[in-house]
Design brief:
This protein is of the alpha+beta class. Among the domains are: 201 residues, Cupin (Jelly Rolls, Sandwich), CATH 2.60.120.650; 54 residues, no CATH class. The chain has 10 helices and 17 strands. The strands form 4 sheets. It has an 8-stranded antiparallel beta sheet, with helices on one face. The protein has a 3-stranded antiparallel beta sheet with strand order 8-7-10, with no helix packed on it. The structure holds succinic acid and cobalt (II) ion.
């Protein structure tokens, strides 16, 4: 990773993280010089019509805003007129070029990355002024988009609208972005993007999980791991006036027992790795139709190398690798190679692999989590 990637204009990664990340917006002209986009409007519309598409269609008329969820009907899409926009999430799960584009953002840990969303709108289209709870890089593809932003504190929304639209949007700054320009927005920065012409925008979104959600999920994780000895006992039971009341002795005894529930950093790391690498509910992996036997797989590994399936999420910590919600504690040598795979989403044929790593990779291959390099991508 270059210290001053073109992506951040003249800034070093350190400067960007220090001065802008999670703090203030940044416009970077020609962040990706020569960027023409990764797919055409028609291809995006086709994606929005696919069975498992995570797609939204926003229409704006004098009557207000309308929102529909995909998958859409191609004939209905062809009939659209006026101000509308279609947005497709998870484009990096289906398009290898999109996964490559995300690698440019590797200066942010993978655990923070959500996905690449791509939108298309004809002139006038947009999703209205709103704010998001997460960080986003808005990279302009074909066409032009007028971005208006506001750091206002007033976050009141239009009541009963089908999507979150700011009621009082006070534009503080605005720019017109062309292909290759990019706007970084920290969480809760108000923004409004209006298509100036046929316009496609690539949103690189990051996740900011709420502590409430993390806490709830951590308790789910912990329930299979806690171990509290003993059973309730009351050999000194006293009479009580109201038999329906829960006595203080019982309360304190159970309180003491529950306080035996303990966890450490390793539990938190294991929980985080599994939780953050868990695929979203609509994601499924296809096992290879005709899997190679173990020995042939190992040979292919050493001649072709491997790559993560586009939908795979892989994270690491300590001596554990996490892949699509599962965790695997491994030895040092295996960890080094598997971390390389997680970092780069690919491993060259020359990579040194332990027997343990090959065994695991074979398991991942059978699950459809990885694929041999240069085989045709789905
Ligand atoms: C868009 O691409 O039209 C919307 C992106 C956003 O506002 O987050
Ligand atoms: Co937004």
């Amino acid at each position: 990773m270059k210290n001053k990637p073109a992506l951040l204009g003249g800034l070093t990664i350190k400067e960007f993280l220090c001065d802008y990340w999670q703090k203030k917006p940044l416009l970077i002209r020609q962040a990706v010089p020569g960027f023409k986009g990764l797919l055409t409007p028609q291809q995006l519309i086709e994606l929005s019509c696919m069975e498992d598409a995570q797609a939204r269609l926003v229409k704006q008329s004098r009557g207000g805003w309308q929102l529909a969820h995909g998958p859409f009907d191609p004939d209905e899409m062809a009939k659209l007129r006026g101000k509308w926009t279609v947005l497709v999430q998870g484009v990096n799960h289906v398009l290898p070029e999109a996964a490559e584009l995300l690698k440019r953002f590797d200066f942010i840990p993978h655990a923070r990355l959500d996905d690449l969303m791509v939108s298309y709108a004809p002139k006038g289209g947009g999703v209205g002024p709103h704010f998001d709870a997460y960080d986003v890089f808005l990279l302009q593809g074909v066409g032009h988009r007028r971005w208006q932003i506001s750091t206002q504190d007033d976050r009141s929304l239009i009541p009963d609208a089908p999507l979150r639209i700011l009621q009082n949007f006070h534009v503080e700054q605005e720019w017109i972005l062309e292909a290759g320009d990019m706007l970084y927005l920290p969480p809760h920065c108000g923004h409004n993007g209006i298509a100036e012409d046929d316009c496609m925008t690539y949103s690189i979104g990051f996740r900011t999980p709420a502590y409430q959600e993390l806490g709830e999920q951590f308790l789910v994780y912990l329930q299979d791991r806690i171990c509290i000895d003993g059973v309730y006992a009351d050999p000194d039971l006293k009479t009580q006036t109201h038999p329906s009341e829960i006595g203080s002795d019982m309360l304190h005894q159970v309180g003491r027992a529950i306080r035996q529930v303990r966890w450490d950093d390793e539990d938190v790391a294991n929980f985080l790795g599994s939780y953050l690498s868990e695929p979203k509910p609509h994601i499924y992996f296809d096992a290879p139709a005709k899997p190679l036997p173990r020995a042939r797989f190992e040979q292919a590994l050493q001649t072709r190398g491997i790559a993560l399936d586009l939908k795979t999420q892989m994270l690491c910590r300590g001596s554990t690798v996490f892949i699509n919600g599962d965790s695997y504690p491994v030895g040092k040598g295996s960890y080094r190679a598997l971390r390389e795979l997680a970092d780069k989403r690919q491993l060259s044929a020359a990579a040194k692999l332990t027997h343990e790593a090959v065994e695991l990779l074979y398991e991942f291959y059978l699950d459809g989590y990885i694929e041999l390099a240069s085989s045709k991508r789905r």
